Amino acid sequence: METVVRTPLEIFSLPQHLVVPLFQRPYVWNEEDQWVPLWQDVRRMAELRLDNLTSMATHFLGAVVLQAQDNQTGTFQPRFVIDGQQRLTTLQLLMDATAAVLEARGQDNLARRLEELTHNPAHYVQVDDEMLKLRHTNRDRASYDEVMRADPPIDYAGLKHADSLLARGHRFFGVQVERWLGDDSPPEFATRAEVLTTVITRALQLVVIDLRAEENSQEIFETLNARGTALTAADLIKNFVFQRLAVEGVDVRQAYVEDWPFDSTFWEKEISVGRYFVSRSSLFLNQWLVSRSGEEISPKQTFTRFKHFVEHDAGVPMAELLPIIKQQAASYQRWTERAADTHADLSRVELSVYRLQAIDLELLKPILLWLHEPGTKCDPKVIDRVVGATESWIIRRALLRLTTSDLGRIVADLINTHRATPQDELATRIETYLSRLDAASTYWPGDVEVEKALKVEAAYKRYKRGRLRIFLEAAEDHLRGYTGPTPLAGGRIARVGYPIEHLMPQKWETHWPVADLAAEIERGEHIHRLGNLTLLTRSLNSSVSNGPWAGSGGKRAKLREHDVFLMNRRIDDISSEGWTRR
């Protein structure tokens, strides 16, 4: 290993190929967080040198790790970019955008200086892929190659990948360079162009860590990213997985294309977990590890625990493990996307995913992954029963607003305790396990406790709307027969966000007068309870909101005429001889 401080001129001057491996995360730097600060530093140094042409001001960009790769005689020796590809890519965009501006404005010699740092000389290029000195091999390849090969002046709007971060970054730097250079009035323009080129090529500095082919690049990568990193657990795991595959002699490109599922918008989405946001891919990998290990694993431990699992517990090479992860990730994505389909006829598993998402809890996912491990072939009826019990345990605690902070530990222990349980005993054993929990932080509330609490709880004020809505939807599904083997209706209630309506309205004074203050206080205590709440369609909600109950234009008449929910028909039935607040 060799560590040296180098300038862009020193890094890129020779013909070469710096390859961003498939397992590196895509380009993510953006204008606000990285491009603007970098340009401000470049501009500051250029202006210092304009004021004092002998100034030697420099700016440190950070570290990059490069590793030599084997190559055939007579070809470029490629070096993998193990760490720092965001910096190197941005630097290449800056240099190429500046060269394009300079060439368009007649500064051919300066443009050529920069072009020699981004493009290999034509007489060294044997195939088209060898033109650019920095080569992307993941999904960024097309957009990077397109903007870096575009002839100046560049028509950014006409680029096929004009909306990519790479094209936008190139355009950003081009615009800034144009503005800073000003008009073409000599000699000031020529001086500014010369100074800017010098700053970009000679005043920026990076620590370059060069590794030999046989050195352990994964160790270096982990050490550099151990603290203060913006890398996700999924990023670190991705690097580890493909390094491992390379050691196993697997075709890394084929494995990436066929078996790595996480480079998509679905998996990159940020998900709220408690006080933190994590990428969905990182969350899945954490939950998958819990399902496999039967241990509670904090988000910060995900990568180190994954590495330990692969090296000590998995019992299979990475080439066999990755397709298993892919298969379970596909199930996970299907459950999630189906749960978001407002009119889909959901399975019991998908319904639980929907309900737990509505109350912002991810606790059930490790159990779902465990029940669906490839090769186990668990009976769907057993799965549904286990899901029903564990969902009840979690949601009843949510109804009573009990803490959920210790439930992750119980989920992990439940998996570990029942991993070897025979399938025909599994559901009963898990129900018994949950019923025996007796700590305040983990117990499974019973019917009497839930009923007693809901009779007096000001539910409308206490619960978030999404949480309250799934309770009312479940009540409607219950009336439609979805707690038994034969539903009584054609489908569950659509999960389209129906408004929650007060039967006795919040503004009750006009149509619901009371005799005295004591009665007013008593009524106020009933208004927001669960028994005074229902679901209505949006159009019906607006027409009955604060209206009276009885009469031709009242709520009861309109519910009879227009509403199809069984819970509202039940209300109509029990109020046929008068309506009270009982």
TrEMBL record:
Domain GmrSD restriction endonucleases N-terminal spans what residues? Answer: 11-242
Any Pfam family hit? GmrSD_C
Annotated ranges, domain GmrSD restriction endonucleases C-terminal:
444-574
What's this protein's name? Answer: Uncharacterized protein DUF1524
Species source reads: Actinophytocola oryzae
The root-end lineage is: Bacteria, Bacillati, Actinomycetota, Actinomycetes, Pseudonocardiales
